[in-house]
Amino acid sequence: MPPQARARVRDAVARRATGRSLEGPFYTDREFFDVDIEAVFARQWLFVAVDAELPEPGDCTTVEIGPYSVIVLRDDDTLRAFHNVCRHRGARILDPGGGSTGNLVCGYHKWTYGTDGTLLHAPSQPADFDPGCFGLRTVHVRSVGGLVFVCLAEEPPADFAEVAARIEPYLRPHQLRRAKVAARTDLVEDGNWKLVMENNRECYHCDGHPELLRTFFPTYGYTEDNVPAQLRPAHERYLRADAEMRETYERLDLPYALIEELHIRPTGFRIQRDALDLAGESFTPDGAAACCRLLGDLATPRLGHLALHMQPNSWFHVLGDHAITFGVLPLAPDKTLLRTTWLVHQDATEGVDYDPDTLLRVWTATNEQDARLVARAQQGVSSPAYEPGPYAPTEYQVEAFCAWYIARLREELQR
């Protein structure tokens, strides 16, 4: 980065006021976006896929992370990840998307790699050519309870193994590694990636989600002391449902306690098993299960939802009957990809065990509503009249996200 641009970013980081939104350039300017790629997306563990997308040897998918393209594939029983760059003259090897492959063949000059990244064939090379020196460049990859993460850094954040060990017991009963993909959608939102993440980290705006609020309690983020009068009936229902769920979790030996370390560590996260309204089973209009085949060996669909937030780019809802994953990838200062994946039991049959419209309805509507809100926010922060505003107490997770983000930029600027 040119010194003048670097100084501009450093000054904005230094001015950041705790408890207020970020200044406009963090959301709009190219140099800030470029710093985000290097300080966050090129250094942190990122959610990019699920094991269920890669069930068999040779199954692969590609993911675009700023200027980086990464291949994630299954090599026998091992997950591997590589930069999607041929070691000959740099051509992309695989096109965007997923599929299955025997070997990885560059379409330019037919250099061929095994699924372990070794160079198997390079036409017309001299006698002293050593293919062992030209294997694909590897990327760190790890599956956590069926969720696949990659890290582009040579030395990934060291705390990821500890975080994985703490969240896997929550995920294990749902057996996501044995699930199958029921649906996946890609939605390009007209906003900066941080606005997408901030929007997810609060329910201050949840009155804009009528489908979601059939079962998701609108008191999320409130405490007993600051629940407004109009939300008191919902809060009382939540307390009753929460007490019932805690008894169920303890009877079934399911971990449920809140762990919230969103900004105090490199791999910030939050996990909690929590109640849902109405039937309390799923994100559907009546709260009843959307799939009659439960995940794993769970004994009842009435388990509320397991909510997991991971900095910097993902959140998850895991229920008794299905799971939904959300991954955020930056495309441009004002464009962001939101990828949503629905998982069901591996033996669940579409049209028999679940109706796709019922399964997808709530979060498809919610994603579209959020995209409109993010676009409005992007328009607002792009105005010369915009000034950072104060967070409400219920937006404490937005503040935690911004504090985590600013800490990553400070680390980058000190390198």
From TrEMBL:
One example GO MF annotation: dioxygenase activity
CC cofactor: Fe cation
Keyword annotations: 2Fe-2S, Dioxygenase, Iron, Iron-sulfur, Metal-binding, Oxidoreductase
Domain Rieske: 45-150
UniProt xrefs under InterPro entries: Rieske_2Fe-2S, Rieske_2Fe-2S_sf, Ring_hydroxy_dOase_asu_C_dom, Rng_hydr_dOase-A
Name of one Pfam family that matches: Rieske
Recorded superkingdom: Bacteria
Gene3D superfamilies reported in the protein's UniProt record: Naphthalene 1,2-dioxygenase Alpha Subunit, Chain A, domain 1, Rieske [2Fe-2S] iron-sulphur domain
CDD domains hit by this protein: RHO_alpha_C_GbcA-like, Rieske_RO_Alpha_N
Protein name as annotated: Aromatic ring-hydroxylating dioxygenase subunit alpha
Protein's organism: Streptomyces oryzae
